[in-house]
Write a structure and sequence with these properties.
- The chain is α/β, with parallel strands linked by helices.
- It has one domain (about 5-135): Isochorismatase-like (Rossmann fold, 3-Layer(aba) Sandwich).
- The protein has 6 helices and 4 strands.
- α4 links the parallel β3 (about 75-80) and β4 (about 105).
- α2 runs antiparallel to α6 (about 120-135) and α3 (about 55-70) runs parallel beside α4.
- The protein is globular and about 40 Å long.
- Keywords: Hydrolase.
- This is Isochorismate hydrolase.
- InterPro entries: Hydrolase_YcaC-like (IPR053152), Isochorismatase-like_dom (IPR000868), Isochorismatase-like_sf (IPR036380).
- It comes from Nonomuraea rubra.
Length: about 160
């Protein structure tokens, strides 16, 4: 994957996330696929690079990615937000996408490739979404600005 993805040029394609189709995945649980797809919907914007995921990796994702590459799009397939029929056939599909010029990566790698400053508004959204993805819900959901106040002498008891 390129060093930095420009979030202003990315659109996310969630390929065939119907409940009955997502349940067919043998490589990622339906919960993982839905959670990862939700993160994508929160952090990416529509443009020229296609970030895609879905079920089945060997059919829907593969052919959508190959068509998009042939049409001149930059394609990034998010493996942990996709599901395949088997690990072997899914890996073969991912290799085919990479051979055609696409990139296969994780949601966390993709999101962090778009954001370098996690204190910016976009960065806060991204880091919060990643914390949710990784199950770190006990972490604070907001990132308050550091405010330095002059120290005050303690109150005396009277």
């Amino acid at each position: 994957m390129r060093t930095m993805v420009d979030h202003r040029t990315v659109q996310v394609l969630l390929a065939d996330l119907q409940d009955s189709v997502v349940a067919l995945s043998r490589t990622s649980s339906p919960e993982t696929i839905r959670r990862s797809a939700g993160v994508l919907g929160r952090v990416a914007r529509a443009r020229r690079t296609l970030a895609m995921c879905g079920v089945t990796s060997e059919i829907v994702v593969l052919h959508t990615a190959l068509d998009a590459l042939a049409d001149g799009y930059d394609v990034i397939v998010l493996a942990d937000a996709s599901g395949g029929v088997s690990e072997r056939t899914e890996n073969a599909a991912f290799r085919q996408i990479e051979a055609a010029g696409g990139t296969v990566t994780s949601v966390a790698s993709f999101v962090t490739s778009m954001v370098r400053d996690f204190t910016s508004p976009t960065g806060r959204i991204a880091i919060t979404a990643l914390h949710d993805l990784m199950g770190w819900r006990s972490r604070p959901r907001t990132f308050p600005q550091l405010v330095v106040q002059p120290s005050r002498p303690p109150k005396e008891n009277t």
